[in-house]
Write a structure and sequence with these properties.
With about 180 residues, the protein is mainly alpha-helical. Helix content is about 70%, strand content about 0%. The protein has one domain. This is DUF4190 domain-containing protein.
Length: about 180
Amino acid sequence: MLASKAQGGKGFGIAGLIVSIVGGVVFAIALTVSLLWIGLAANSSLSDSSSGSVPSAQASDDATDSETTDGTDGAAGTYDEAAYVEDVRPKIRDLVTQIQPGATDDQIDQLYADDTLVLIGTAMLQAYDALGEDAISTEAQSMVDSSQGAVTEEQAEQFMHAVLESAQQYLVKSQAHTGSSAV
């Protein structure tokens, strides 16, 4: 029994469980995005203060060498991490260079490695499934808050939309069965 009748019954127990799961997903996404933006700011300040070059990121090259697409044109509902990374990486590069004009592709690729992009995309899909459009505005506001004014709300929403669009295209796992039953 989730809750006694005096506490509101089963409905409140289920609602509490759902709210805690959604809150956990939103927290995980906000934490990930915040850490990534902090890393970008730290990377930017390091590159401004040093005259040396930043080593090249090989994550993108490794992914395209070791993973191949299945020959499809990326129809919605496919799960292809390599195609997702290939689709979202240029969008992220464009957005980050708008925010931080001095950022190089290598710096951005180091900050947003393939695994990181897949993690952000997967988390954004889950949040969007749970919250709908509210997920985008919630995560965008979290990004604005964590960037301490370096990112506008519009830029943060563009970032979230870019990740979500690519994730919906390439990170959707097909369901063998729906599992629905009559109640």
